[in-house]
Specification:
- The chain has seven helices and six strands; from the N terminus they run H-H-E-H-H-E-E-H-E-E-H-E-H.
- Helix 3 (33-40) packs across helix 4 and helix 5 (81-108) packs antiparallel against helix 7 (146-263).
- Strands 1-3-2 form a three-stranded antiparallel beta sheet. A three-stranded antiparallel beta sheet has the order 5-4-6.
- The protein has 264 residues and is mainly α.
- 72% of the residues lie in helices and 10% in strands.
- Among the domains are: 2-79, Winged helix-like DNA-binding domain superfamily/Winged helix DNA-binding domain (Arc Repressor Mutant, subunit A); 82-108 and 153-193; 111-144, no CATH class.
- A hairpin with a 6-residue loop joins strand 2 (60-66) and strand 3 (73-79).
- The structure holds zinc ion.
- Zinc ion binds next to loops.
- Zinc ion binds at residues 114, 116-117, 119, 133, 135-136, 138.
């Protein structure tokens, strides 16, 4: 990222000396506005004014959190790199258009200058005033266009170079964001699918339960019948077993008796 270029852009947008905010926010996320104010040695309101100007073009975004102790909101700021690069790209392209307009008029038109007032005018205006200075009435001299042409050409070359850099960075950032978006939507899609699968499974399970319940109900009926039968059997058995102990007792008694008689 061409931090210096962005710095200059912010100076143009938010006033001289305010470009420093770029270096503070660059490569950071959710920067506390009080920290920005401290670093810039400005009041919180001055910092917010700068940031509001930048947020009008979406160059920065914020989240806010309530300070639990003080009860007011604190804003946390993040540079929107994609928007910054786009704005920078447009700004540089605009500058090139202006430079080329200047170059064209310097190459095709005459300009006149009053050397004592250091004021330059176009040919039309010079003609209007009879080629004498509007302020001091000195005679205008024909400007030498060579120097401004040279300067403008240098400006165009430099700005075009910067534009290529910014366009390159913008392509990279856009690609990165696109990948991140795709990944996020894929993840979302996967989550959605997982959720749907889960719901399907839950629905299927619920259906099975209903079927199972019906079966259980049917089984219970059978079981009841069986139980009744079984109970009857048990009862019958109980009756027999109720008799059994007495028979056992008798046999035991007789055995004892036998033993006693045998021993005696
Ligand atoms: Zn003059």
């Amino acid at each position: 990222m061409q931090v210096k270029l962005l710095h200059d852009l912010v100076e143009e947008m938010a006033g001289e000396g305010n470009g420093r905010i770029v270096e503070i926010l660059f490569r950071k996320k959710d920067v506390n506005e009080f920290l920005i104010a401290k670093k810039m040695e400005l009041t919180i309101n001055q910092v917010r004014n700068i940031l509001y100007k930048l947020s009008a073009d979406n160059l920065v975004s914020f989240i806010r959190k309530k300070d639990k102790r003080k009860g007011w909101y604190i804003y946390y700021w993040t540079l929107n790199i994609e928007k910054c690069l786009e704005k920078l790209k447009n700004s540089l392209a605009g500058k090139i258009v202006v430079f080329e307009g200047t170059l064209n008029s310097r190459e095709t038109k005459r300009f006149y200058v009053c050397k004592s007032c250091d004021i330059e005018v176009g040919e039309e205006k010079a003609l209007e005033h009879g080629f004498s200075c509007e302020e001091c009435a000195d005679i205008y001299e024909l400007s030498d266009n060579a120097k401004p042409i040279r300067e403008v050409k240098t400006g165009i070359t430099r700005t075009k170079k910067n534009l290529v850099l910014i366009q390159g960075e913008l392509t990279i950032v856009k690609k990165r964001l696109e990948t991140a978006r795709k990944r996020a939507s894929n993840k979302l899609g996967k989550e959605k699918k997982a959720k749907m699968d889960l719901m399907k499974a839950a629905r299927a399970a619920a259906k099975k339960k209903v079927v199972a319940k019906k079966k259980v109900v049917a089984k219970k009926k059978v079981v009841k019948k069986k139980k009744v039968v079984a109970k009857k059997k048990v009862v019958k058995k109980k009756r027999t077993s109720a008799l059994a102990p007495s028979s056992k007792n008798t046999s035991l008694a007789s055995k004892l008796r036998e033993k006693l008689s045998g021993s005696s």
